[in-house]
């Protein structure tokens, strides 16, 4: 009966009701739209606008005073002809790879140990997270002293163990790994806590069953821990690649790109172009190249995250 | 998709706004003095920060006195410490936040002028009464193609900065500092022989400062960074090799340069203030930095002309004008700089007031004027008010006019980046091949100079 009445309602009445329904929907979601607007404005100004501006900049020559001039691919040609271009990419790739070997495995291993501990877990978690609370510049300067080939802590420890000291930041063969160590130390806490959260979500019965079947620690890690945390491990791997490929603070504060350009990364070269050589187009071109490479990893990351959500 | 469209639209709108702000600002041909009835307000960079209480007090006194003389002009000082930061300089310019009269280092002047980021002030330069009295070498820093773009505030030439206390401890005469690079090597050996981590001689080698000091050193040996055309590198020369060979010998044969390298100015100053370093290349105002920032003592330091003395690098700072500044603002800015920076007995050159305020007086810097009456007056006023052991700087001051001051090369920062690596190689690798390093660096430098079209 109700349906029949609705069906015979005049068209004018229907059109009067429709806006009120929309209004109701809008009203109901007003708070959500408000939050969305705030986020959109923030992203537009602080992320999307700089990205678009950076892309435009890479095809322009500008002094930020007069009108910018379009120069096509000239900026890309300039940076590609730079003898330091290939070295910067090689250094970045090496840093990323070393950071994966050192910085990816260690936090996971620490998380497993912390998860296995029965006592002082909260205290140790705090200790592991402590370096994250230190401002990066302070942490880097602390390591500057650790790495001092003379009175530095690391060489003192090596000497105490009757081992020869190393040149650390002063040698082309050890400078990059020295930066990786700093970077790993600074980011250790966050990674460890994320892994720890993932480990704690694994049902305890699985371990109990494995123990009853006689599985040792390493078999439990191999057959339970790693498969159960596979997705978070993959996500962390991709995030780490994206973060470490943009490494800048460590070479900027510790080595200035030296010795002999062995720690000049793509981000550092970008900085040199923009701020030392006032060639913003060149810096923009390098930034765009790096962004395209990182977009590949970001796409994989998004796919993996979606899979994890399912 | 919608967000992408929104971002593009926003970017286009904002980009258009930024681009629309441009203008050449080259000014007209107005040489008349500023009309006393015209109200002008100018922003000026490098007002001393609050942490520099005495200097700030003096600045504010000067502004008040100047505004009393010229009631139509308002000086709006902008403070910052340090006065210039390469990371924010371009952003300020892009965002339209650059002061009307902005602060620069000598190093950056050429690049800024070449980028069209400074106003041509030639038609208005008559507003500066002291301009004709400037040392021609200093005046040249702010000129390009016959046009004038700015005025200096401080200037210096590089010399040998040394620790008199360590000289005495090492059995050396602090009143007879080394005059040649061979003597530097000998003295460095004796100072590092004191042990306890003492370093005889230190050299910068990171963040382009290695290249900068290489330029200073090659000038001291009579060499040059680029050829007369400015389009080819000239550092792959016997003088360039001598600079590097000397460093290599001190670092590896004598072990008088310490084991830690990739040093920058702050590292070296820290070593000097801690009494652990004998010598390094620097400017007279290093003494102030050592005392103010690193708690050193003036009486510990002395300064000599650069070893070799065939030439030395000039440095300093000054002011350029925003390309968007109106002729009135440029005139007012020139009048202010004339009052504050370039008139002996006034502003920054009021040594008696500085001494009364407890500030150090007596360091032979700046040396803005040539050998003329104004220069003589400035030197006399400084000597009269000196409260520092000025005799420690006498060797440097006596030789000042005899050592030719040279400017930085074109594309200075790019050349310095290239040479940083060369200096680093010599200081960090025992087997560094100097010939090969210089040949490779020359190729890179030639390409950089060709790319820039300088």
From TrEMBL, chain A:
<protein>
    <submittedName>
        <fullName>Sugar ABC transporter permease</fullName>
    </submittedName>
</protein>
<keyword id="KW-0813">Transport</keyword>
<dbReference type="InterPro" id="IPR051393">
    <property type="entry name" value="ABC_transporter_permease"/>
</dbReference>
<keyword id="KW-0812">Transmembrane</keyword>
<dbReference type="InterPro" id="IPR000515">
    <property type="entry name" value="MetI-like"/>
</dbReference>
<dbReference type="Pfam" id="PF00528">
    <property type="entry name" value="BPD_transp_1"/>
</dbReference>
<dbReference type="GO" id="GO:0005886">
    <property type="term" value="C:plasma membrane"/>
</dbReference>
<feature type="transmembrane region" description="Helical">
    <location>
        <begin position="280"/>
        <end position="302"/>
    </location>
</feature>
<comment type="similarity">
    <text>Belongs to the binding-protein-dependent transport system permease family.</text>
</comment>
<keyword id="KW-0472">Membrane</keyword>
<feature type="domain" description="ABC transmembrane type-1">
    <location>
        <begin position="89"/>
        <end position="301"/>
    </location>
</feature>
<dbReference type="InterPro" id="IPR035906">
    <property type="entry name" value="MetI-like_sf"/>
</dbReference>
<keyword id="KW-1003">Cell membrane</keyword>
<feature type="transmembrane region" description="Helical">
    <location>
        <begin position="175"/>
        <end position="198"/>
    </location>
</feature>
<feature type="transmembrane region" description="Helical">
    <location>
        <begin position="231"/>
        <end position="249"/>
    </location>
</feature>
<feature type="region of interest" description="Disordered">
    <location>
        <begin position="1"/>
        <end position="20"/>
    </location>
</feature>
<dbReference type="GO" id="GO:0055085">
    <property type="term" value="P:transmembrane transport"/>
</dbReference>
<feature type="transmembrane region" description="Helical">
    <location>
        <begin position="126"/>
        <end position="147"/>
    </location>
</feature>
<feature type="transmembrane region" description="Helical">
    <location>
        <begin position="95"/>
        <end position="114"/>
    </location>
</feature>
<keyword id="KW-1133">Transmembrane helix</keyword>
<feature type="transmembrane region" description="Helical">
    <location>
        <begin position="30"/>
        <end position="51"/>
    </location>
</feature>
Automatic annotation (TrEMBL), chain B:
<protein>
    <submittedName>
        <fullName>Sugar ABC transporter substrate-binding protein</fullName>
    </submittedName>
</protein>
<dbReference type="Pfam" id="PF01547">
    <property type="entry name" value="SBP_bac_1"/>
</dbReference>
<dbReference type="InterPro" id="IPR050490">
    <property type="entry name" value="Bact_solute-bd_prot1"/>
</dbReference>
<keyword id="KW-0732">Signal</keyword>
<feature type="signal peptide">
    <location>
        <begin position="1"/>
        <end position="21"/>
    </location>
</feature>
<dbReference type="InterPro" id="IPR006059">
    <property type="entry name" value="SBP"/>
</dbReference>
